[in-house]
Amino acid sequence: MDDFGLPDLTDVDPARLEADIREKLEGRRALLEAIASSQAPTTVENTLLPFELEAQRLEEAVDVLHTFAASVGGDEWHAVEARLNPLIVEHEDDVYLDSRLYDRFKALGSAELGPETAWCVSEHLKAFRAHGCHLDAVAQERLRTINREAADLTTEFGQLALKAQLAGSVPLTEEEAEGLSESQKAGLAADAESNPELAKGKPCLVVLRLPTQQPVQSALARADVRERIFEASTSRGDGSDPATDTRRIVLALARLRAEKAQILGYSTYAQYVAAQETAGSTRAIHSLLEPMIEPAQRNAEAEHEALETYAEAPVAPSDWLYFRDALAREQFQLDNEALAPYLELTNVVERGVFYAANRLYGLTFSARPDLHGYAEGVKIWEVRREDGALAGLFLGDYFARTGKRGGAWIHTIRQASRRGGGCVVVCNNLNVTRPPEGEPALLTWDEVETAFHEFGHALHSLLSDVEWPSAAGANVPRDFVEYPSQVNEIWARHPEVLANYARHFATGEPMPEDLAASLSAADGFGAGFQMSEMLQAVFLDQAWHDRTPADLPESPDDVEEFEKATLERLGIASPWIPPRYRSCYFNHVFSGGYSAGYYSYLWSEALDADTADWFRTVAAKDGDGGLNREAGAKMAAEVLSRGNSRNPLEGFERLLGRPVDTRALLRRKRLL
């Protein structure tokens, strides 16, 4: 490890890392036994401090494992992950079901402590109760069994979902690729070259992304090709390919989670999850979401009618993106192909994402080509605060590769705290199609916004300033974790930021004013579609997890009907817009830690929309839209630096001076 705390990621061997994690598990187990069996009076120094520091050591090794399993992939890494995940879950049960440790933390909870330490102790006590430490031995043993089985199943689901993305790839001839730009064709050609058995001799290969709608559908001119890709996407995991059928896992996980919730004293798993988050209850979640259904459907129907009028023909679900973009070109002169030359990846990151972070938070970024990531193409930057102090290292892993899971995400390899020391090492992942050697990586507008979004998560780590490791960075409730990242998206369109990064990759010329204006003019275009697909996914997640075991389907063949009945009952089903994720490839929910928590994207967006209004109005100076150091300093002080060192909602309310006003979200989504 160098001075920055960056492991030698070029020399990580699966077997050695597995042995290291097993050793750290045993080391932590021995330490916690010593704490639990100690007869000395409980203190912060002899209980909380070693508890936190040993957890940090283990977590850093596990984070490296998850980095390689998700971002590199392959059978060997997946096998290690499958062996270790149940052990890690079992270890957490050993920790939080130990009544002796629980008693020591209760003793700390009644002591005179500083506010950060008191909150940290209260969060650990909450975790003890959430694990069932207060229950009898029979109930605890059943919970252990459920957690072990669920750990195996979530790992299996994630690995099958990844295999299904690749197995569902669609090869295209040159004629079938009509409508794609030369850059897009070159990227698909590279995927075909990397996967010749899937390309079947054809020059282009569409490897599926995680969401239902595939970005390439927006440009493909032939309706039959769009339909073929759409069918490949929506049939993932549904049994049509027995090798990647996930329906059995969906049912088993939903049933295990429902049983777990009842053992812990909750009617359903959704109620159990909500009680651990800032929402507090499923009633609060539904109070936010259900009023959105009718106006979202109304907007989506109006959008569909407009598309069919434009197309002068019926518009199927597979056609939506194609005609949406075509209509945007006509109405707003918003042309993705015309935008692309001005959205080159390095410019977007260094002159856009980093520029906004500098203007708001005073951060500076220096490329470190001497440091190496875990895969080809991973870039590393050294990040420093305004006073020159080291904030950490930022890794950008922006390109898709075989074995890497779909979507976009953040992972933290190392987090810093005052008690735990260290240097932040944080990585953003996207899945941009890698261009041929020597060609520029040109992004879609969605990918630009995703780059800003994921960096909002990174800011949560880089600006963290807390006492305890478990409170650092994005270690906040699930329904708050997306809030900083969603706020950071607003800077992608900010005129000053856009002017700084939107430059032609070859000439350096700024984006023409009419193109830049088209982005602003089209802001909110297609909101009905976006809300419909999102709400469908949210309510599918809630449906699977807001049920008792007796209310869940029995057979894998019932999964599709369960989906259909759920959406129709709520009035959110659409013949033109499918859910953003169907159950059988809903990785967030059945593998990614968002079970019963996918609502958090919209819950957090309510905070985000209100904060965006605050930046544009209260925090703005001389018409700068809030892009100033004073506004950034307040955002950092109240939200980004605080992690989970206090109730996160307190930070939001201190920032704005009041609780959230959800009308801001309704205005953004054009639901008012």
How would you describe what is shown here?
- Helices cover 56% and strands 6% of the residues.
- With 672 residues, it is α+β, with helices and mostly antiparallel strands.
- Among the domains are: 122 residues, Glutathione S-transferase Yfyf (Class Pi), Chain A, domain 2, CATH 1.20.1050; 69 residues, no CATH class; 182 residues, Neurolysin, domain 3 (Orthogonal Bundle).
- The strands form 2 sheets. The chain has a 5-stranded mixed sheet, with helices on both faces. Strands 1-2 form a two-stranded antiparallel sheet.
- The model has no long low-confidence stretch (mean pLDDT 95).
Helix-strand blueprint:
Blueprint: H1 14-37, H2 44-71, H3 75-96, H4 99-109, H5 115-131, H6 137-167, E1 170-172, H7 182-194, H8 196-199, E2 204-206, H9 223-234, H10 247-263, H11 269-276, H12 282-311, H13 320-332, H14 336-339, H15 345-361, E3 364-367, E4 379-384, E5 390-399, E6 409-414, E7 424-432, H16 445-462, H17 478-481, H18 483-488, H19 495-501, H20 513-521, H21 527-545, H22 559-570, H23 587-590, H24 600-616, H25 629-640, H26 648-656, H27 663-668
Parallel strand pairs: 5-7
Antiparallel strand pairs: 1-2, 3-4, 4-5, 6-7
Helix pairs in contact: 1-2, 1-3, 2-3, 3-6, 4-5, 6-10, 10-11, 12-13, 12-21, 15-16, 15-19, 21-22, 25-26
